[in-house]
From TrEMBL:
<protein>
    <recommendedName>
        <fullName>DUF5050 domain-containing protein</fullName>
    </recommendedName>
</protein>
<feature type="region of interest" description="Disordered">
    <location>
        <begin position="24"/>
        <end position="43"/>
    </location>
</feature>
<keyword id="KW-0732">Signal</keyword>
<feature type="signal peptide">
    <location>
        <begin position="1"/>
        <end position="19"/>
    </location>
</feature>
């Protein structure tokens, strides 16, 4: 009798475990979006700006946002007839936001945090004049680095490099400017094509730029030799959408066409040379746009806006980071930040 009861209990437990296992498997079925698996995150509202955000940067404790504040009509709508004022806000992850800069300036869409200073550039139509600016994180010390600057720059303690401004963008070369003196920007590598993007390696020592050849339309990446020329490191028949340095490798996104459809590709290759690895490809929209990486993942924004994509460096499929956004993205070691419908959100990586 006792043995029969024990056997019945064991059978019931086994059936129950089987049912639980089957139910768990069903509830964990992979969700797909645009043919890609979805990894759900938990976005949290962080900040609701009263101005138009143009750039964002983050450290371990704060998010920094730059933008334009427009005068409003009696109906509470932005008044396009009045000149906007620039604003930079320091937003703690816990606490009250603090305006650290506001006035007659027009920051462009890139805001970067380098060695405890914020950097941005202004165009020729800014009330403050064009050029590259730097501000301490408490907002007390502004440095007018240059009255000439384009949209892409590399910052070093003793020297800065920047692309040509808007009215010179279709000319060759980029500028070099020594810091802390009265030197004027010097144009370098003018014969190496139109410089679209400047970037440095993780050490900040090696300088690279992307260019599009005038004769055949191919794209290339050069490494500066410190003088009048540079060494070609990478060439592509596909249009470069973005490029970044990840350790000893290049990561880049290209746009092409395949059977009349847009084709977006993500590649990796050692800077020193070697085989090119195709990490991801996607036909149609939304296609890939910007690429950035951290210790564990490679992240992608999309052309039309939406959710971030990410790819584990250990391999696997490209996945959609559910609940995220890919506009004005900033990140620190542990978190992602983005703008969605006039609201800044953040989530853990």
């Amino acid at each position: 009798m006792r043995c029969s009861l024990i056997a019945s209990l064991c059978l019931a437990l086994a059936l129950s475990a089987g049912c639980d296992k089957q139910g768990g498997s069903s509830s964990q079925a992979t969700e797909l979006r645009d043919g890609q698996p979805v990894a759900h995150g938990r976005p949290t509202p962080l900040y609701s700006p009263k101005f138009v955000i143009r750039g964002m940067a983050a450290d371990g404790e704060h998010l920094y946002v730059s933008g334009l504040r427009f005068a409003q009509t009696k109906a509470g709508e932005p008044n396009p007839d009045d000149a906007p004022s620039g604003v930079i806000v320091k937003v703690p992850l816990l606490g009250m936001p603090e305006v650290i800069a506001e006035g007659a300036f027009v920051p462009m869409t890139t805001l970067r945090l380098i060695d405890d200073r914020l950097y941005w550039h202004e165009r020729h139509d800014s009330p403050d004049g064009p050029g590259l600016r730097s501000l301490t994180l408490d907002g007390r010390s502004l440095d007018r680095i240059s009255d000439l600057a384009g949209h892409s720059w590399v910052i070093r303690p003793d020297v800065v490099y920047f692309t040509r401004p808007d009215d010179e963008i279709d000319e060759g070369g980029f500028y070099e400017l020594a810091r802390g003196g009265n030197d004027k920007p010097k144009l370098v590598v003018r014969r190496r094509g139109v410089v679209r993007t400047l970037l440095a390696d993780d050490s900040g020592e090696d300088l690279y730029w992307t260019t599009r050849a005038r004769n055949d339309g191919t794209w290339a990446v050069y490494q500066w030799d410190g003088g009048k020329s540079g060494k070609e490191r990478l060439r592509s028949d596909e249009t470069f959408a973005s490029l970044t340095v990840d350790g000893d490798d290049f990561l880049w996104v290209t746009w092409a066409e395949d059977d009349g459809e847009p084709l977006h590709s993500l590649y990796r290759r050692p800077i020193a040379g070697g085989d090119t690895q195709v990490l991801a490809r996607k036909r149609g929209q939304p296609g890939f746009m910007e690429v950035f990486a951290d210790e564990r993942h490679v992240y992608l924004t999309t052309v039309r806006g939406g959710e971030l994509r990410r790819l584990a460096k250990t391999g696997g499929e490209l996945e959609v980071l559910g609940g995220s956004g890919d506009r004005n993205v900033a990140s620190n070691r542990f978190n992602l930040f983005w703008l969605d419908d006039k609201q800044v959100y953040w989530m853990s990586k």
